[in-house]
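testing teh design pipeline on a random one, pls ignore if ur not involved
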């Protein structure tokens, strides 16, 4: 089923992306899913060794960031396009009217090729090569995934931990941790040294978190099951302090509409406003647990200023936190300092907006705050 963005959402995006071509590029990006990306788990294997193993499977691996070779894009695999199409059309007839490859790749092109033999003769190009997408579930079924050699993670989702830059022997709080993509990434940065408290309030999500930590060989993490605000209050009573805190906050998910188009149907402006209040309360509770000069990274996978710059403006003006610029390997745009009738602190522009049309990724927002 194809979903369309709601008119109010489109109106808001036009106000954020004032250049018509930029806005058009954003809308076009919603029509395709992000590239398939994985993160090599260096707790278990080196990026070089993992790349070699996956290439033996015929997977075409790209490492877009020299400084972070663990970030890998899978552009497809070598194989027979004809047999792939025949196989998936049979699956389509037997099981469902739509075909998905993993959680990240669509086979919407199958019917087009089935109808156009001339395209079959030329082959299907992915990333400039005659490659085919991975088959359904192939990412999760591979031995390397089951052994915890890699984590299936969208590229922009890896950026908050890069901004946080956890180090061995530090004490880290991941306040909204499940399913564990960023927790396992932090443990990797820390080489399993130091301590991470990974919190979530939902038992079903805790089970997923625990499973991923075990699969990835993470041994420096304590899992807690508490409401984030209540956990912060308990830790504050014991004067428990952290070097760094990640708040990957619950949000309206506007940046994930490419991979989760149903979110367009569920989007609601009232939810945006409600979440903004929750996010401010989370940051208000968490910052008290920072050591002096401690770092708090706030991130969301949404574009809504109410959930992004408005929260950072609150942290600066009401909590006295300082925002710092971030050097990231991905294209970022400055945070906005005005939205509707609201004027934000000028330094909010040091935050980072990641748009899908800039990086062929999902959308994200990241800000690095320091307690002085």
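output:
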């Amino acid at each position: 089923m194809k979903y369309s963005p709601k008119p109010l959402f489109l109106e808001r995006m036009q106000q954020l992306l004032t250049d018509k071509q930029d806005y058009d590029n954003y809308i076009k990006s919603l029509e395709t899913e992000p590239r398939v990306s994985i993160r090599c788990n260096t707790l278990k294997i080196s990026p070089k060794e993992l790349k070699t193993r996956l290439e033996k499977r015929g997977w075409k691996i790209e490492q877009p960031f020299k400084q972070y070779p663990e970030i890998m894009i899978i552009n497809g695999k070598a194989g027979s396009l004809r047999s792939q199409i025949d196989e998936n059309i049979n699956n389509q007839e037997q099981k469902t009217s739509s075909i998905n490859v993993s959680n990240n790749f669509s086979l919407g092109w199958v019917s087009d090729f089935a109808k156009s033999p001339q395209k079959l003769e030329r082959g299907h190009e992915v990333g400039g090569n005659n490659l085919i997408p991975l088959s359904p579930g192939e990412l999760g079924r591979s031995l390397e995934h089951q052994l915890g050699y890699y984590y299936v993670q969208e590229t922009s989702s890896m950026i908050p931990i890069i901004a946080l830059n956890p180090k061995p022997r530090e004490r880290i709080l991941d306040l909204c941790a499940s399913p564990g993509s960023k927790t396992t990434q932090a443990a990797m940065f820390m080489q399993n040294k130091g301590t991470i408290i990974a919190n979530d309030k939902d038992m079903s999500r805790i089970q997923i978190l625990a499973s991923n930590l075990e699969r990835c060989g993470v041994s420096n993490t304590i899992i807690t099951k508490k409401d984030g605000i209540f956990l912060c209050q308990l830790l504050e009573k014991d004067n428990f302090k952290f070097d760094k805190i990640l708040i990957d906050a619950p949000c309206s998910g506007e940046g994930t509409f490419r991979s989760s188009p149903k979110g367009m149907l569920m989007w609601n402006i009232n939810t945006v406003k409600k979440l903004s209040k929750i996010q401010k309360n989370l940051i208000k509770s968490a910052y008290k647990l920072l050591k002096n000069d401690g770092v708090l990274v706030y991130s969301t996978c949404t574009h809504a200023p109410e959930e992004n710059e408005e929260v950072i403006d609150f942290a600066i003006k009401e909590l006295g936190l300082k925002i710092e610029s971030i050097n990231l390997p991905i294209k970022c745009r400055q945070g906005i300092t005005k939205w509707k009738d609201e004027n934000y602190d000028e330094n909010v522009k040091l935050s980072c907006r990641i748009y899908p049309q800039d990086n062929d990724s999902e959308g994200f927002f990241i800000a690095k705050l320091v307690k002085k």
